[in-house]
Amino acid sequence: MQQMQTQKSQPLAYLYFCLFFISGISGLIYESIWSQYLKQFLGHAAYSQTLVLVIYMGGMALGSWLAAARASKFRNLLMVYAVVEVALGISALVFHDIFIRYLDVSFSVIIPALNKPLPIALYKWFTASLIILPQSMLLGATFPLMAGGILRGFPGLSGYKTSVIYFVNTMGASLGVLVSGFYLVKIWGLKGAIISAGILDLFVGVCVMLLCLKERFPAKTSVGEESGSGDTPPPPQAPPVLPKIILPADKRALYYPLMWISAITAASSFIYEIGWIRMLSIVLGSSTHSFELMLSAFILGLALGSFFVRNKLDTIQNAPRFLGLVQIIMGASALATLFTYGSMFGFMAFTLDGLAKSSEGYLLFNIMSHVICMIIMLPSTICAGMVIPLIIHMLYKNGFGEQSIGKVYAVNTFGGIAGVAAAVWILMPLVGLKYLIIAGGAIDMALGLYILYRFSETRESLLRTVMQPMCVMILLAAFAFSKVDLGLISSGVFRYGTIAVSKSKRIVEHKDGRTASITLFRSGVDNLVLSTNGKPDASVGTGEEFSSDEYTMALLGVLPLSVRFETKRAAVIGMGAGMTAHYMLYDPDIQQLDVVEIEPAMVKLAKRIGPKVENTFNDPRCNIYIEDAKTFFSAQNRTYDVIVSEPSNPWVSGVSSLFSKEFFDHIRNHLNDNGILVQWFHKYEADITILVSILKALAQSFPVYEMYTVGSDLLIIAGPDSSTDISLKRDVFAIAPMAENLAKMGFSGLDDFKLINYANQDFLNALINTYDTPANSDYHSYVDLYAAGKRFMGSHISEIDHIRDFIIPVRRIVFGDTSYMSLSPSRLLPDIYNMIEIQNAKLLSQQLIISGRDDDSSRENISGSVFILDYTYARPHKVTFSQIQSAIIQILQKTLPYLSADEMREVWDVIEMKISRWDFSDDEMEWIDYFKALCVYNIPEIRRLSIELLPADSISDHYSNQMLITSLFAASAVLNDTTKLERIWNKYDEKMDPPAAIRAAKAFVGRGQNINK
Fold it and tell me: How many angstroms separate the CA atoms of 666 and 112, rounded?
């Protein structure tokens, strides 16, 4: 009868397993989301992830220990579990609002009052811990409560049930990481994601409560072997089951050793995890999604280990021997990753070679990245997943009762905390990646040998004799033959899809820092590159040649000094190569320059670049601070005339918060009156929506801004008040050492800087408001969510160049900005492509004018379009109208976007003379009049002729139609005339996704009037 009742109750146990699986999903959603919240306060994602990991596990350990200690006092453990789940759910619902208030008070009141690094650090870490500690304790209590409740309610096969409980919870956790990072945050943001986790916990809690009310379980079983009969109490005549008496000798022989083993094996496991995360970041890239894939793979291994061992626990004959063997295999598997790691670079290169640069390809990239994580992690983590169920079962079977469940879980978690702290703060910076992994493997193998020597069941085992020399050989092999190839580490395989160039690199120095692995290497003959986790962050030429990065870094420092008449105090966010600060320190007016960098290794290696950055490290006015930017500005409570922000690429985990509206609002408070912010961004590995999101965030705190284009980089100068003058006005070329170094790059005066000025806020705000993309926020980070995918797809913000280079100069027409910029066509300009295009325009106009003088000596090397026009003048009957039209368009493409109105009038006079002998029809003459109207900026004629020349029926996306629609909208915006625009727009084939120039021109019609009806 008892057996039948037990069997009848088993299906209900699987319902509890399902609910605990859901609880596991919500538990890891919390960890993932908490780290993203706390990085807003702690700074670098590595710090927030470390703290969350430590407090998350510490709270779970404490909660587990307390639940275990109190388990015998509770009549119904499952009802207590339900209450804990409900409490977790409620706390999740209010977490966001509490955190926002905590953040505001911390940055605005407490941190400025503390004003010292040590008190601030203690405050940040202590209070950040308190924010998540209560919920972590509740999470920690769930496992012992659920396991104890299941074992009470469904006796029999304790090992199997414990293992399955651990499996379903960790499997849910592995899924929770992916659901959170790839779905919930994307659609609902951080607040929505954490609330959704709270709703899951409330659902689980309520369901368990209802089940508890329906089913009656025995209050407690004995602390010895499982007994009882399911729901049916023992018959009155049955003798009572007496608890097994646990003597101190029993604890010394089994209990304490197993507790220590539980703690130490967790420490080694998390040493591996920290090492693997750093190693895999270099292969997969350091994005938030990469971290989530790594964490998911780690937890998946734990889940699989508990699943594989579930059927063995109740039948295993020699548990200590099995445990010792598992520990040795775990350590050896971890050491083996040092030998397989190098192959992952080739695997990634092979993967990228076969994937399309599309959203579907990015999905496959993430899947293959997950596979790489599993190849590295699973062998060891599967072993780790076997250990906890095995230790719990050994203690439970030997009479230590259900309290052992929570206490083993607790000490295991405490051990994990020790492993994380040791790996991040001591071993990684001290010994580097290779020896970090070796340390973890040595600990596990030593632990396995200890088990084989310590327990009586293994003292006569042949396994012990064989394993000792084998472990020594494996360890020596790891020391002697394993290698972390620095060429591969700096290859950026996740970015370039190749490792071929890694062999030709000459490593100058490498340092595994607390937050990243930094490498300084020589590329080519005269180029030094500083890379972070395999991603080049700055390159500097050591000879007379200049890298493209040098132009950007120099102008980041020089442009703000050209905007302000006097700059006394400045700050630079992000060390990079140190060149921005180097150029700013040429200015004798600067009294103090603060450089804020979060990774000490970056400072150490940047110093080795040499003379081109020496001011940063030698000038006494420069102070380098190792700190998170937000904390630095709050703690120092200083204001600046200029703040330059040049962080890493925004797809790097944690960096997107330096492009958020919260950050811009925070940094605005640290600018003096008429102070300016200089913000770096890039066109490569991003798309227009990423830029739009950042500009919308910036515009909320900085109503005045101008964008400069330096090759593939964007430099934005922004003022916090509408009255701030951000025009170029100070002649920095009067500073002799600065002028000397700028001259080497090709800059000769402020007019050169004006050549790279792209547009101001009036133009850009109109453009970005045509996109539905939200402003980037710390709590719903559009940039963090999408930047990594755009990097994979090799996206480029082509719209910036399209608007600038399109034959119809929208900005010039709309704002009447056709002023002349002096530039000698023969002068060598800086090697920046958007400056060279202006020089080429000057050269072409000069060539055109000279060719019109009938000087035969000047006809060499003329362009094809000019030759066609010359041929038209000489032999008009030999040329067709389409050839003339094409030649004119080609000339205007290369001149109209770049030259002033006066210059274009001169260009048109020559063109008109060259085609004067052609007999045009009325329709053809309309095109000629249209081209003339463009060159002389006759706005009414541009509008009239654009309408006349557009097709009467459907308007295809042909280039000529793009010209006409763009000029129509630009002219209509100037004249504030929207007549016929709606009808024409509705006939345009690409009206849902028009080219950038058309979008920009349309944005000004009626100053926001919507014609998309």
Answer: 13
- The stretches of 778-832 forming alpha helices (DSSP H) are 782-792, 798-805, 810-815
Pick from 574, 947, 943, 973: nearest CA to 766: 973
Round to whole Å and give the CA distance between 923 and 932: 15
End-to-end, the C-alpha distance of the chain in Å comes to 76
Burial of 909 (0-12, 13-18, 19+ CB in 10 A): middle
The model's confidence at residue 226, banded by pLDDT at 50, 70 and 90, is: very low
| Residue 778 contacts residue 663 (beta carbons within 8 Å) | yes
What pTM, to 2 d.p., does this model score? Answer: 0.86
Q: In whole angstroms, what separates CA 116 from the centre of its chain?
A: 30
Please list the residues that pair with 595 across neighbouring strands.
Answer: 572, 624
For CA atoms 705, 709, 710, 711, the dihedral sign is positive
Out of 133-147, 238-252, 705-719, 761-775, pick the least confident.
Answer: 238-252
Helix (H, G, I), strand (E, B) or coil at 571: strand
Sheet holding 527-532, edge to edge: 506-512, 517-522, 527-532, 535-541
Tell me the sheet residues that pair with 808. none
Here the tokens at position 932 are: 């003339």
pLDDT in tens, 137-190: 888 788 778 877 777 777 665 567 677 777 787 788 788 888 887 888 888 888
List, in sequence order, the alpha helices (H) in 607-660.
614-618, 629-636
Q: Write out pLDDT tens, residues 81-105.
A: 899 989 999 999 999 989 888 888 8
Q: For 101-166, where are the E strands, in sequence order?
A: none
* Predicted local confidence at residue 250, as pLDDT: 59
Sign of torsion, CA 874 876 879 883?
A: positive
CA-angle at 726, arms to 721 and 730, nearest 5°: 140
Dist. CA 729–CA 562, nearest whole Å: 6
Question: Which long-range CB contacts under 8 A does 351-354 form with residues at least 24 apart?
Answer: 352/493, 352/494, 352/497, 353/497
3-state secondary structure of 487: helix
**Average pLDDT value over all residues in the chain:** 85
> Which of 635 and 300 is assigned the larger pLDDT?
300
Rg of the chain over Cα atoms, rounded to whole angstroms, equals: 34
Render pLDDT for 625-649 as a digit per residue (tens, 0 to 9). Answer: 988 887 788 777 789 999 999 998 9
Q: What is the pLDDT of residues 482-510, one digit of tens each?
A: 988 888 888 889 988 888 765 567 899 99
Both tokens assigned to 112? 């400025």
In Å, how far from its chain's centre is CA 234?
60
pLDDT band at 821 (very low <50, low <70, confident <90, very high): low
Q: Is 297 exposed, middle or buried (0-12, 13-18, 19+ CB in 10 A)?
A: buried
Whole-angstrom distance, CA of residue 372 vs CA of residue 365: 10
Q: What DSSP state is assigned to residue 684?
A: B
The three-state secondary structure class of 235 is coil
| Residue count (the chain) | 1013
Distances (CA, A) of 521 to 402, 545, 574: 57, 17, 20
Judge residue 957's burial from the number of C-beta atoms within 10 Å of its C-beta, 0-12 exposed, 13-18 middle, 19 or more buried: middle
Query: Which residues is 511 bridged to in the sheet?
Result: 518
Within 13 Å, how many C-alpha atoms sit on residue 147's CB side?
35
Q: What is the 3-state secondary structure (H, E, C) of 952-971?
A: CCCECCCHHHHHHHHHHHHH
Angle, CA of 670, 673 and 677, to the nearest 5°? 55
Neighbours of 499 (CB within 10 A): 18
Contact yes or no for 43/630 (Cβ under 8 A): yes
Orientation of helix 256-284 relative to helix 359-397, angle to 10°: 170
Per the structure block, which two tokens stand in for 371? 């596979």
3-state secondary structure of 989: coil
Residue among 580, 547, 578, 621 nearest 830 (CA): 547
Q: Taking a C-beta distance cutoff of 8 angstroms, is the pair 889, 807 a contact?
A: yes
